Amino acid sequence: MISIQNIHFRYKNKPVFSGLSLDLQPGHIYGLLGKNGTGKSTLLRLINGLLFPKEGKLNVLGYTPAKRQPDFLKQVFLVPEEFYLPNISINEFLTANTGFYPLFNAEQFNSYLGEFAIPRDQHLQEMSYGQKKKLLISFGLACNTPILLMDEPTNGLDIVSKSQFRKVMAGAVSEEKCILISTHQVKDLENLIDRITIIDEGGILFDQTVGSITNRLHFKISFDSEEVRSALYKETSLKGNAIILLNDEGEEGRLDLEMLYKAIISNKEAVQKAFK
Ligand SMILES: Nc1ncnc2c1ncn2[C@@H]1O[C@H](COP(=O)(O)OP(=O)(O)OP(=O)(O)O)[C@@H](O)[C@H]1O
């Protein structure tokens, strides 16, 4: 569905990707993680054709995004991290934008707005940042594009809205849809994403499904000093040692995404070895 092969990209004097390859399939919610400035937003903009790779192949739904063909653009929606919305009503916003997305469903849109408790008759300029973000998330979901890209969607959302976000996203997953979410708020997405992609130093550092991670790694709290010594990663707290072990015994367990991320950033060789 999205095939990225050996792409190179740089801003004027800032190299960002030097040979990044990635394959994304429908039916998944991908979590795109990485340190500040590693290129997550840049990758989303390359996928929807707002930026053009300097080298390499980028194919999305059979199209080259950089050509910006209308038949491609109607199939992809990006909820950006930063945005400007004009001083118009929600109805005017819909009139101006729904024509670009033939599968837009007004009933769904109204139901998402209701879920997020956004008054339907509000003007966009009267809305807070979080409310505007929820409007864009609702619109993006209701466009029913096979590709949905979201850049830090939970930034600015309050605690209740974050759980509403997880609920609406869980309902939006389908076999035909590929959702790619860039985030630092890993706790917000922990039970939502089913594949984790981490970018670093111009390429892919880690790319695994949640199932494969919990098959190979075991996350637990331990008081056993021997076990703690053998851990791939550990964090000591008053509640005990939170550790990541190789899952040699095939234990059933839950993924702690924040710990996994820290383990990969601090000890990438050991974690990568577990997947070889
Ligand atoms: N318009 C631009 N012109 C020049 N450099 C840019 C531009 N936009 C981004 N960059 C640089 O490109 C790199 C990647 O930026 P990008 O915004 O894609 O990173 P990110 O991973 O999304 O970061 P964050 O987690 O902070 O949102 C950064 O070093 C950034 O400074």
How far apart the termini lie comes to 26 Å
Main sheet, how many strands, which sense, barrel?
Answer: 6 strands, mixed
Overall mean pLDDT? 92
Based on the structure given, which CATH architecture of the largest domain is correct? 3-Layer(aba) Sandwich
What is the rounded Rg?
20 Å
Which ligands accompany this protein?
adenosine-5'-triphosphate
- Output the CATH class name of the largest domain: Alpha Beta
- Counting copies of identical and different chains, the oligomeric state is single chain
Strand content: 25-35%
Indicate the low-confidence ranges by residue numbers. Answer: none
Number of helices: 11
Pfam family, one: ABC_tran
Keywords: ATP-binding, Nucleotide-binding, Transport
Protein name: ATP-binding cassette domain-containing protein
GO molecular function, one term: ATP binding
Give short descriptive properties of this protein.
three-stranded antiparallel sheet; 276 residues; alpha/beta; globular; Rossmann fold; binds adenosine-5'-triphosphate; 11 helices; 2 domains; 12 strands; six-stranded mixed sheet
General description of the model:
This protein has 2 domains: 2-201, Rossmann fold, CATH 3.40.50.300; 211-273, no CATH class. It has helices at 40-47, 70-73, 90-97, 106-115, 129-142, 159-172, 186-189, 210-216, 225-229, 257-266, 268-273, and strands spanning 2-11, 14-24, 28-33, 55-60, 76-79, 147-151, 178-182, 195-200, 203-209, 217-222, 233-237, 240-246. α4 (106-115) runs antiparallel to α5. The two termini are 26 Å apart. It is globular, with a radius of gyration of 20 Å. The mean pLDDT is 92. It contains 11 helices and 12 strands. The longest helix has 14 residues, at 129-142. β8 and β9 (203-209) form a beta hairpin. The protein is α/β, with parallel strands linked by helices and 276 residues long. It has a 6-stranded mixed β-sheet, with helices on both faces. Adenosine-5'-triphosphate is lined by residues 11, 14, 16, 34, 36-42.
